[in-house]
Structure to design on (623 residues):
């Protein structure tokens, strides 16, 4: 039994017909409930629910303050390597893209770590492309050993791994995994991932579960928004998060809502996701899973990030460079995508405080 | 009238304990302590950034306030024990609130692992305050394990739902020879007051204060509510009569 069985229950479901059946009164009833079913969540994602976006936002805000307080955890990504063997049509690291390929030496990792730690951040997310011969599990492990001197929480966003590999990295000091399914649509997934190990839909889909089995402390999932119709992607993301949280209660499950950004080599976007759609799916998810974390990255603009901060967000990146070695070397022409909010950690601290929230730098202690 | 709460040999004038995790700014903490009168404050070790100049929460906690580090994030006894030892070696003193939670859905504590951690840490000289669901058998085991107090939840943490577990807490108050501190779930000052009227030794809360529009004013309200409830308990509540004087008494024949 894995999440694919859950996915199959809805794979051929007629979402549009279901949405057409949803009435105002259905939404009003759901908004009165404390605990939502999968069907309630799907109804909240319907076009009918759109006119209730303010009511949903008010409730989402209240639930988030109740469970997380007026706090926003800050972290930054550190790109270790952009070598990649995959051909994913939407990604700047695509093997076909003529970008400068680079992998940080351990000495460079240490220099980047020092520069980031100077900003006060204690949570870091390390990223690589999918090239396990070059950015090998051993290389990642060596980097983690260095980073653990500077950070109290280290998460990875790398290629999908086996359970033993996750366990090995946890032992080295990793406590979080971020991995996006990109799209839950199985057929579309096959088309978007033209070549490379990532083409295996099932191996990717089960990666978060393998990390849970390895006792990963936090697992963050998501769909890359813009690849397919957002209501379905939001539904499957919530379904997946709920499945994992129910089955692996000792892992904290959270989601990201990454919206596609332009990158070197183009800008693949087949389904536009508006700001309103983003808010809609965020508040619906918060009502469905009140205790789950929600991460918003610098893919979003400063204006949008400042305004959605109160609607359910619990974690934000700051001082971001998507380039390899970008924190001290600049790292031109190695980035995965263009960021939209280039504010420094110091600036983010100020803004969050001004909005009446506490920027949190440390929320984990290696045990 | 002298009415001090004594835990781990320390005399406390206030029976309100407060948390720290959810404030819009840690700079509010000194005012919250002052207005509420609280003398014990719990801080998650995972949140303390000992190396930070600007964001070390300990900088906001006055000397006279008893620090109660907690093991938030621990999923089993072993992790709780390691966090407790780390807290003590980092200079956070020897009080520890044991929080062992392996259920991220409802955040309900694991009684079995909590007892195990309490036993180990009490032997090491910690003043152990374990957080539990109000279960009599777990509470009895905690007494044997050397706990300094027992902290049952009034409702699931962060729920602000009030004293939903009232009947079970009442049993703990009657049966357990340790201070019973109601921790979690208290939503309103009247909930805290009710717990104190029942004979709880103290209340610990965070969300209800932190999520108020004016946390400092709410802290003051809780300080008063806890005090009022305690005084009512000490004064001895009058019996509440829930039967009317019947016009045709059933025992009237006895006097005829």
């Amino acid at each position: 039994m894995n999440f694919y069985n859950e996915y199959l229950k809805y794979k051929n479901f007629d979402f549009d017909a279901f949405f057409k059946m949803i009435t105002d009164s259905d939404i009003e009833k759901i908004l009165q409930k404390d605990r939502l079913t999968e069907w309630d969540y799907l109804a909240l994602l319907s076009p009918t629910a759109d006119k209730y976006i303010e009511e949903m936002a008010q409730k989402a805000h209240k639930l988030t303050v109740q469970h997380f307080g007026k706090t926003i955890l800050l972290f930054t990504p550190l790109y270790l390597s952009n070598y990649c063997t995959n051909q994913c049509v939407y990604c700047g690291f695509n093997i076909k893209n003529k970008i400068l390929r680079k992998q940080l030496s351990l000495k460079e990792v240490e220099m980047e770590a020092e520069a980031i730690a100077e900003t006060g951040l204690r949570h870091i997310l390390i990223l690589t492309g999918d090239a396990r011969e070059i950015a090998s599990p051993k290389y990642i492990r060596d980097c983690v050993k260095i980073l653990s001197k500077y950070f109290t929480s280290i998460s990875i966003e790398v290629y999908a791994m086996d359970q033993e590999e996750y366990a090995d990295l946890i032992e080295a000091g990793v406590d979080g995994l971020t991995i996006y399914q990109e799209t839950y649509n199985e057929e579309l997934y096959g088309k978007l991932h033209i070549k490379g190990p990532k083409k295996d839909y099932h191996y990717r889909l089960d990666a978060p579960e393998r990390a849970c089995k390895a006792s990963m402390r936090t697992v963050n999932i998501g769909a890359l928004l813009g690849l397919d119709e957002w209501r379905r992607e939001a539904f499957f993301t919530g379904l997946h998060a709920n499945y994992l949280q129910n089955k692996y209660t000792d892992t904290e499950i959270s989601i990201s809502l990454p919206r596609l950004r332009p990158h070197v080599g183009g800008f693949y976007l087949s389904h536009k996701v508006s700001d309103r759609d983003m808010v809609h799916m965020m508040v619906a998810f918060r009502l469905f899973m009140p205790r789950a974390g929600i991460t918003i990255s610098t893919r979003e603009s400063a204006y949008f990030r400042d305004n959605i901060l109160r609607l359910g967000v619990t974690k934000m990146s700051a001082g971001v460079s998507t380039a390899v070695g970008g924190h001290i070397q600049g790292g031109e022409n190695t980035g995965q995508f263009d960021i939209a909010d280039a504010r420094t950690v110091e600036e983010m601290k100020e803004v969050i405080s001004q909005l009446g929230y506490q920027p949190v730098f440390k929320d984990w202690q290696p045990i | 009238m002298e009415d001090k709460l004594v835990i781990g040999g320390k005399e406390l004038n206030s029976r309100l304990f407060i948390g720290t995790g959810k404030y819009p700014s840690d700079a509010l903490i000194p005012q919250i302590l002052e207005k509420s009168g609280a003398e014990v404050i719990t801080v998650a070790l995972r949140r303390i950034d000992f190396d930070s100049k600007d964001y070390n929460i300990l900088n906001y906690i006055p000397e006279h306030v008893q620090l109660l580090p907690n093991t938030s994030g621990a999923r089993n006894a072993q992790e709780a024990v390691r966090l407790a030892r780390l807290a003590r070696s980092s200079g956070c003193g020897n009080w520890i609130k044991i929080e062992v939670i392996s259920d991220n859905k409802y955040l309900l504590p694991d009684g079995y692992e909590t007892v195990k951690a309490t036993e180990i840490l009490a032997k090491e000289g910690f003043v152990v305050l374990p957080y539990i669901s109000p279960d009599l058998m777990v509470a009895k085991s905690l007494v044997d394990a050397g706990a300094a107090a027992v902290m049952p939840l009034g409702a699931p943490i962060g729920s602000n739902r009030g004293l939903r577990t009232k009947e079970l807490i009442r049993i703990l108050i009657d049966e357990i020879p340790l201070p019973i501190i109601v921790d979690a779930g208290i939503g309103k000052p009247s909930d805290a007051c009710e717990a104190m009227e029942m004979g709880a030794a103290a209340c610990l809360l965070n969300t209800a204060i932190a999520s108020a529009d004016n946390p400092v004013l709410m802290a003051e309200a809780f300080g008063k509510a806890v005090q009022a409830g305690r005084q009512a308990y000490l004064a001895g509540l009058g019996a509440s009569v829930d039967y009317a004087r019947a016009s045709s008494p059933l025992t009237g024949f006895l006097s005829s």
Observations:
- The first helix of chain A runs from residue 3 to 11.
- Chain A has a mean pLDDT of 92.
- The two ends of chain A are 31 Å apart (CA to CA).
